[in-house]
From TrEMBL:
Cleaved signal peptide residues: none
InterPro entries, A to Z: SAM-dependent_MTases_sf
Protein keywords: Methyltransferase, Transferase
Gene3D superfamilies: Vaccinia Virus protein VP39
Example GO BP: methylation
A single MF term (Gene Ontology): methyltransferase activity
One Pfam family recorded for the sequence: Methyltransf_23
Species of the source: Kribbella voronezhensis
The name this protein goes by in its record: Methyltransferase family protein
């Protein structure tokens, strides 16, 4: 244990689906009685001890935990805890106590978004030139389900190439991205675009289709749950791609900056879509390059 480093406390809302942190060791799980059931699932999944403390309802008790676990990471499940911080109700929050008060650490998604903010042009240079046959066939599949002329909300438009392809097929596309760098890139190419964070912003609508290409792989299960529920309220049909695989990983490939990627197996992904009100009407697998397998999914 490093006594010079502050503890990292992962605050978990009650009933959050278990998302095991990767790349770091969790030392313990703490909970108030109200959060015991959720905390027990975390402790069992992580293989660490669970401590249930009736006094764990205020910042003072939390500071005691931080003092004991300096240099370590612990999970704390205390529904309704008030630290004077904006604690999300739908995903975890990582905090540190520096001695002067609590500070919120950036989430995995925020770190990933910062990478795109800094390296949008570099990302564009990594993309292959020309449209792939796989994507052309995917657009054909979408066209069979959603007729041209339909309204489309694109989440994570990135460089804007997919939106151009959709408009060439007769769709009315609203381009959006959480990274201001991509929004400005699209605008400089002569197209309107809005800054929209799929986790925190309202989608507007209604739309006929929500389209997201290689976007959902940046969300963990709790975050993707939030996005899928919001999408269901905004559109009747959903088309997206995400990577097939196991769990999550950090990568600095291509951009030399950290990005978080989350991969899925088919059955858990189908189950999550069902839980959030979607019915899968079509699922394809494609290998976009050796060792990189992707799901192409349509749902209503």
């Amino acid at each position: 244990m490093n006594l010079m480093c502050p503890a990292r406390l992962i605050l978990v809302p009650d009933e959050l689906p278990v998302e095991v942190p990767t790349g770091e060791r969790v030392a313990a799980v703490y909970a108030s009685p109200a959060g015991e059931a959720t905390a027990a699932r975390w402790a069992a999944e992580l293989g660490v001890r669970l401590t249930v403390d009736p006094e764990l309802t205020a910042g003072e008790a939390l500071r005691d935990i931080a003092d004991v676990h300096r240099g370590e990471t612990v999970v704390v499940v205390v529904p309704g805890l008030d630290l004077g911080l904006a604690i999300p109700t739908d995903h975890r929050l990582v905090i540190e106590h520096t001695g002067d008060g609590w500070s919120v650490l950036p989430s995995d998604n925020e770190v990933t978004l910062a990478a795109y903010e800094q390296a949008a042009d570099k990302f564009r240079d990594t993309l292959p030139h020309g449209r792939s046959e796989v994507m052309d066939r995917w657009f054909d599949r979408i066209g069979a389900a959603v007729p041209p002329g339909a309204s489309v909300l694109e989440l994570g438009s990135g460089t804007g190439e997919d939106a151009v392809a959709l408009e060439e097929r007769g769709y009315r596309v609203r381009r959006t991205d959480a990274a201001g760098s991509f929004v400005e890139m699209i605008r400089s190419d002569g197209y309107p675009a809005d800054r929209l964070n799929a986790l925190t912003d309202d989608f507007g609508g209604p739309y006929d289709l929500i389209f997201a290409d290689a976007v959902f792989l940046h969300f963990d299960r709790a975050e993707l749950t939030t996005v899928l529920r919001k999408a269901r309220r905004a559109a009747a049909c959903l088309a997206f791609t995400t990577r097939e695989g196991e769990g999550g990983e950090w990568s600095t490939r291509f951009l030399d900056l950290p990005r978080r990627f989350n991969s899925w197996q088919e059955q858990p992904l189908r189950e999550l879509l069902t839980e959030t009100g979607w019915t899968v009407t079509h699922l394809e697998r494609h290998q976009t390059r050796p060792g990189s397998n992707w799901f192409f999914i349509l749902a209503v």
